[in-house]
Amino acid sequence: MSIRVINDKCTGCTLCVKACPFAAITMVDKKAVIDLDKCTLCSACVETCKFNAIEIKRESKGTPDIDQFKGIWVFGEQKKGIVQPVAFELLGKARELADELKTDVSCVLLGHNVQDKARELIERGADNVYVVDTPELENFLDEPYTKVLCRLIRKYRPEIFLCGATFIGRALISRVAVRLHTGLTADCTGLSIEPEQKILLQTRPAFGGNIMATIITKNHRPQMATVRHKVMKELPPDASREGKIIEEMVDRPLLTSRAKILDIVQEIESTVNIAEADIIVSGGRGMKGPENFKIVEELARVLGGAVGSSRAAVDSGWMPYSHQVGQTGKTVCPKIYIACGISGQIQHLVGMQSSDIIVAINQDPHAPIFTVATYGIVGDLFQVVPLLTKKFQEIKK
Amino acid sequence: MNIIVCIKQVPETTHVQIDPQTNTLMREGVKSIINPFDMYAIEEGVRLKEKFGGKTTAITMGPPQAEAALREAISLGCDDAILLSDRAFAGSDTLATGYTLAMAIKEIKNFDIILCGKQASDGDTAQVGPGISAHLDIPQVTYVKKIEAIKDKSITVERMTEEGFEVVQTTIPCLLTVVKEINEPRLPSLKAMMRAKKAQIVSWKAVDIEMDSDRLGLNGSPTQVVKVFTPPPRPKGRIIETTPEEAASQLVNLLKDQI
How far apart are CA A95 and CA A99, in angstroms? Predict the structure, then answer.
């Protein structure tokens, strides 16, 4: 493993100096010189160099028999026996990728009394559904879920494995990827197949969405990725679709867990979970107090949406943390995001700027929220929001 | 009770931008800080030690300048600090990072609880914490918002979920990743700052830790970045400046096909 500048090719253009996030490149006699103490081999310079003058060599031992890995798998996350919408979204995407690779789509469903859900997954695009149905898997626990999933992946060898970037998915798949000794890309917003080598191109935001990176897992299988909610499009259910349901038996030791769940508490105040919501109405410091959040809740209710909040409102104790959108809260990507009295600090913007439509309602015409807004209303939210509620109610009738 | 807190030095994310002319990272004036989520892990680690006795050790993997993050951790109450810094670690993805930290923690031997922030603010992967526990084969609980009780060799915590939280009990040793809600980090005391300044930071290279060199750095990293680019800017929006009544009507018209 090494990085070097090929002096004959280096023209001294300094693009790499600017590209290096770690200030590791300087120009000496019009040639790039890399400070190895600072370089992290992130390859930003290799990407930027127009003259192929920087080279990173890697010697990697990959997964043996890489050609034996076939098919695309999706983790069919369920809670209380209900398949989570992100699994359907992933099946939609997996279908598209599978058609390109001329392979099939399988879904793995772990739970208890969930057999009847397998059919639902076939209707949404799965060709095979592997079901492990046993009381120990009723609720998510890191260890048994990891062990069972690893067993199935080792047995069937899928080339690609996709999972929702949910609280469960992020904990589970990180552990699975380590045990399988393969690559995992978190929180993808784009997936496609590289046409020549047929490998998965995984695109994800980094640095709070300021930069996008495309990542591959070239020599290891499966290629694993978690994918954000609401980014991929689900297929409408097709009752005529055919598929196989395969019931898998697993040995007892795979089901043991050192952790156990003592209680499950639902505390989301409004009815809709903000990660899954199509419409989110959020309030910020401009709400002036917890009592005023009811006008935001009213609008969300009429629109069938969820209530979000800025960090300022959570820190003031007006809303619970589970509603917080932004860097230290949740990242959301709804169809419509309505920001009421939120100034739009970058910490908030990184959590919602990939929403399809952003509406900002703020009194200050210079508030940064207007820079990302599709529609911005400069005005008093205490007048505008109730009017919106009333008018949406009228057209909904 | 011996606690290990894994931290990461990150650029202050909010300042990282791309120069629209050159399409490259603008790094002037970007400060390095401790990953904001790790501040909660440090605070929780220090609180546990204060309550149960023992020692809290901060550990980080990074370039030599990451030592500054460890000194800050000491100023916030950690007793010891270990810096893993070696060319051999460069280019690590989350698999290699988790492996390296896990092997270093094995070297420390005596630990009860490992604490991590829920994710780092630069990469945002949330993969390294669970990766460490997988390498060590210990139980993990992610997104912990409260430690309810510690008794004998078991710990009860509240784990955040999309809808609320779960109360989870697990055996010790274990690894927890924590969210902001768990505590309010203290400010460093003057005395602790003095101590941090003088503290001896232990520095380990790859040869100081028993591990498989094939699994380190770039060679031990299955993923590779093939392209970095700026997301397309959002199209310029439309600003509505009129009476509240008129503004609301216009907006409802614009959105009515979307709902």
Answer: 6
Task: Output the domain CATH number for residue A369.
Answer: 3.40.50.1220
Structural domains in chain B (count):
1
Q: Is A4 on the interface with B (CB under 8 A)?
A: no
Cross-strand pairs, B240: A377
Alpha-carbon distance of A233 to A240, in angstroms, equals: 20
Spatial contact of B131 and B94, defined as CB atoms under 8 Å apart: yes
* Furthest CA-CA distance within chain A: 73
Instruction: Report the domain count for chain A.
Output: 3
Chain B residues with CB-CB distance to A47 below 8 A: 225-228
Whether residues A84 and A201 share a domain: the answer is: yes
Q: Could you give the CA distance from residue B120 to residue A394 in angstroms, rounded to a whole number?
A: 45
Distance CA A123, CA A120 (A): 5
Does A273 reside within a domain? no
**Are B226 and A216 within 8 A, CB to CB?**
yes
> For testing the chain B interface, which of A26, A35, A41 should be mutated: the one with the most B CBs within 10 Å?
A41
A222 and A358 inside one domain: no
One domain, residues A190 and A146: yes
Looking at A34, A57, A80, the residue that finishes a domain is A57
Examine the domain organization and report whether A118 and A250 are in the same domain: yes
Task: List, as own/partner pairs, every contact residues A362-370 make where C-beta atoms lie below 8 angstroms and the sequence separation is at least 24, other chains included.
Answer: A362/A286, A363/A286, A365/B239, A365/B241, A367/A343, A368/A343, A368/A344, A369/A339, A369/A342, A369/A343, A369/A344, A370/A344, A370/B237, A370/B239
What is the side-by-side order of every strand in the sheet holding A190-193? A190-193, A200-206, A211-217, B223-229
Do residues A241 and A297 share a domain? no
Beta carbons within 10 angstroms of residue A154's beta carbon: 10
Tell me if chain B has a CB within 8 Å of the CB of A363: no
B178: CATH: 3.40.50.620
A23 shares contact with chain B (CB less than 8 Å): yes
The answer to whether residues A80 and A216 belong to one domain is yes
Compute the distance between CA of residue B55 and CA of residue B42 in angstroms, rounded to an integer.
Answer: 12
Q: What pLDDT tens digit does each residue of chain B (259 aa) get?
A: 999 999 999 988 655 665 555 545 555 667 889 999 999 999 999 999 999 999 999 999 998 999 999 999 999 999 999 999 999 998 899 999 999 999 999 999 899 999 999 999 888 899 999 999 999 999 999 999 999 999 989 999 999 998 889 999 999 999 999 999 999 999 999 999 999 999 999 999 999 999 998 999 989 999 988 888 877 778 889 999 999 999 999 999 999 888 8
Query: Does any domain span residue A270?
Result: no
- CA A139 to chain centroid, in Å, comes to 22
Q: Which residue has the tokens 């998965």?
A: A200
Q: Are B143 and A275 within 8 A, CB to CB?
A: no
Give the whole-angstrom CA distance, residue A163 versus residue B174. 25
The CATH number that applies at residue A200 is 3.40.50.620
- B-chain residues near A184 (CB < 8 A): 94-95, 127, 223
| CB-CB under 8 Å, B240 with A387 | no
